[in-house]
Structures are given as C-alpha cells and as structure tokens.
C-alpha cells in the first residue's frame, strides 16, 4: 500500500472541497484547523486525516455554519456534527465525502458500509442519481486535474458497477412493452458505461424493452440491428469529451442510422450542449445528463 496517496497539497484540498486555498490558509492561521507538515517555508503537505477534516468542514461551512463555530469543535465533535447534519437533511455531500475517502484509501468495506446505510432509506435509483452520479462527475474532474490516479477511478467505478449489475440481476419479472425497444450503446472507443448501465436498469423498472450492447460498439453493428429491429430509440452516453472532428463524424453516422426510419437517438452528455442549440434534426435528441432523463421520488 506504499503507493497509495496519503499526502495532499493545498491545491488538492481546494479541488476536493471547493474551498479556495487562500481561505484554507487563513483558517489554518487564524483557527489552527489543520496541522500540515512543512517541507519548507512555502510548501505544506496535508495528511489523509486533514483531508477528511476539511471535507467535513466544507460540508458544514457550505450549509451556513460559521467557521468560528466550527473551529471550536473537536475532531470527534466535528465528525458527529457532520453526520448529524447529513442524517437530518439527507445531504449527499456527506456520503460523497465518505466515498472519496474510500477511494483514496482503497477501503472497500467503507464503500459497502455507506451503500448499506443508504439503501435502507432510499431506492437504488435515488442513490445512483443523487450520490453516484455527482461522485463520478467529481472523480472525472479529479482525474483530469491529475489529483487521482487511474487506479483510484477504476477502484470506485468497479464497485459501483458491481452494485448496478446486482440490482439489474435482482429485478423481478415485469411486463415488457414489446412494440418499442430501447437499444443502449457506447460508440467505438467509449468505455465509461456506468451511466448507460444505470439507464438500462431504470428503463427495465419502467417496463421498457431494452437491448443493452454496452461499450465500444462499431457503427456497422448498429446498422445491422437496424435491419433486424423496428421502432427503436437508440441511446448513447458520453462521459469524456471528444474532438470536434470526432463529434461531427459520430453525428454523421447517427444521421445515417436514422435515415429513412422513424427512429430516434438520444445523445446524453453535457459536452453536446453547443450541438443541441444548433440541432435541426428532430430525430436526434440531446440531453445534458442522466438527471434530465430520469425522475426519482
């Protein structure tokens, strides 16, 4: 476990909590909230316990707790106050913060503990939409800013994948609408399928007929399916942005797929926002995120 990141710069803390490094420095000086190790006069390194503490502080601070009050809490009181707030208002920040700690420490039991706590009080759909999706978006930001290693992302993604697959496998037999089918796919080269998997789960709960193809599907496979299945809604989901050239090529293929049919294609991902405002093809529907397709109680 020597390769696990257990020290963090103040820039890491800023990215993880949304609290500006300048503010953290002021709090540290005024209230002695953290206890960093000094490499030299200008460089401070923070421990995993510092990270956990500042995550808890950020939750309370962003919900109108005064920093002067927070600073008077012991570490144990801070932890209890954070948990109490989360339970009172079902704030997902607490769960997300705990899952981030689980990711950084490769602590699988902590992941399962948080999951078990939440699945007792909310549906899997609500847990996925309100906890897992914001968590995955945050991890994507951390990955892009090199604040986490691919191993961290894969560790967390695989745990969520397991829970999603388990919930799909445990679905009871439902009456399926057979006059229409949703075909879910990721285009060739796209491998982040968690969102698509969850959408498959959600559609099945609603009694929709689905064909789940999964990740990295060449378009010639889709053209073949077009000859075998009628009345299709194609659904694809993007987690990572692509070049303009790749996007244009993808849309050209989608238009060919839809040509001479009454089918539709739903393209999910906030990186398509500009295209959605310019789109003139009514058979192509752009959605910025899964939360725009799914309503949970």
Task: Write a brief caption for the model.
The protein is an alpha/beta fold.
Poorly predicted sequence stretches spanning 5 or more consecutive residues:
none
Question: Taking all residues together, what is the mean pLDDT?
Answer: 85
Oligomer: single chain
Tell how many strands the DSSP assignment holds. Answer: 8
Strand order of the largest sheet: 5-4-6-7-8
The succession of helices and strands, N to C, reads EHHEEHHHHHHHEHEHEHEHE
| Rg, Å, rounded | 22 Å
- Termini distance? 41 Å
Architecture of the largest domain in CATH? 3-Layer(aba) Sandwich
Q: By helix and strand content, what is the structural category?
A: alpha/beta
Q: Layout of helices and strands, plus pairs?
A:
Layout: E1 7-8, H1 10-17, H2 21-31, E2 37-38, E3 44-47, H3 48-61, H4 67-70, H5 75-89, H6 92-105, H7 108-119, H8 124-144, H9 150-169, E4 177-187, H10 194-205, E5 208-217, H11 219-228, E6 232-237, H12 244-258, E7 264-268, H13 273-278, E8 284-287
Helix pairs in contact: 3-5, 3-6, 6-7, 6-8, 6-9, 8-9, 9-10
């Amino acid at each position: 476990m020597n390769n696990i990141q257990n020290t963090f710069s103040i820039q890491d803390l800023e990215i993880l909590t949304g609290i500006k490094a300048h503010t953290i420095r002021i709090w540290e000086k005024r209230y002695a909230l953290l206890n960093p190790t000094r490499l030299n006069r200008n460089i401070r390194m923070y421990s995993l316990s510092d990270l956990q503490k500042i995550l808890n502080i950020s939750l309370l601070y962003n919900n109108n707790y005064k920093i002067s009050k927070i600073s008077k809490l012991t570490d144990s009181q801070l932890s209890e106050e954070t948990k109490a707030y989360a339970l009172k208002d079902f704030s997902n920040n607490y769960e997300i913060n705990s899952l981030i700690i689980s990711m950084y420490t490769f602590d699988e039991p902590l992941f399962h503990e948080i999951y078990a706590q939440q699945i007792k009080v909310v549906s899997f759909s609500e847990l996925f939409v309100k906890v897992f999706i914001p968590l995955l978006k945050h991890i994507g930001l951390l990955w892009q800013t090199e604040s986490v290693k691919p191993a961290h992302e894969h560790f967390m993604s695989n745990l969520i994948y397991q829970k999603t697959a388990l919930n799909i496998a445990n679905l009871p037999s439902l009456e399926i609408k057979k006059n229409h089918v949703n075909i879910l796919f990721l285009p060739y080269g796209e491998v982040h399928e968690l969102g698509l998997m969850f959408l498959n789960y959600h559609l099945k709960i609603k009694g929709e007929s689905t064909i789940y193809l999964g990740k990295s599907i060449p378009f010639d496979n889709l053209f073949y399916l077009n000859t075998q299945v009628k009345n299709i809604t194609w659904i694809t989901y993007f987690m990572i942005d692509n070049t303009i050239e790749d996007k244009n090529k993808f849309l050209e293929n989608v238009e060919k797929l839809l040509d001479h049919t009454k089918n539709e294609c739903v393209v999910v991902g906030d990186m398509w926002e500009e295209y959605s405002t310019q789109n003139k093809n009514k058979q192509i529907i752009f959605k910025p995120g899964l939360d725009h397709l799914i309503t949970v109680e």
